Structure prediction request, 155 residues.
Amino acid sequence: DALFFVTSNGGTDQLWRSVVGGATGIVTTAAGVLSDLTAVGSTLYFTGVEGGVRAIYQATLGGASATVVNGTAANPAGLTTDGASLFFTQGNGKGADRDIYRLSGAALLRLTDIEGGDSQPAGLTFSSGQLYFAAQDAVAGSNFEIVIRNGRELY
Prediction:
């Protein structure tokens, strides 16, 4: 078992790993905020900024370094897991709009394309095998509603 934690030192964050009965050491350092630490199996995912771009990084629980996950450099946020895959929101290239994505192994899949142009899904939470989140599905200023993600259908 390992414990991961973040320290900050003058604007630079460091991700540390401490192993029970073993060594403690720095996994990675970034000139920005490291956050959203989420374990999926034996991989730790987190968001960080490198070169002014926020992306998702991954580190194996036994590893000593972290790497950027391809396709996630669009300001990802809200990392959560169902125990097997990583789910998060990030920009989709359409202005300020965001969508929900699933990362399973090396496969990255966009799960939502909610109408309205500025859906801003947030609050991703799993319960009973379903992903729940709030999003706007109409013009800006509409009320947020609870939607359920099950497979590829939106309820």
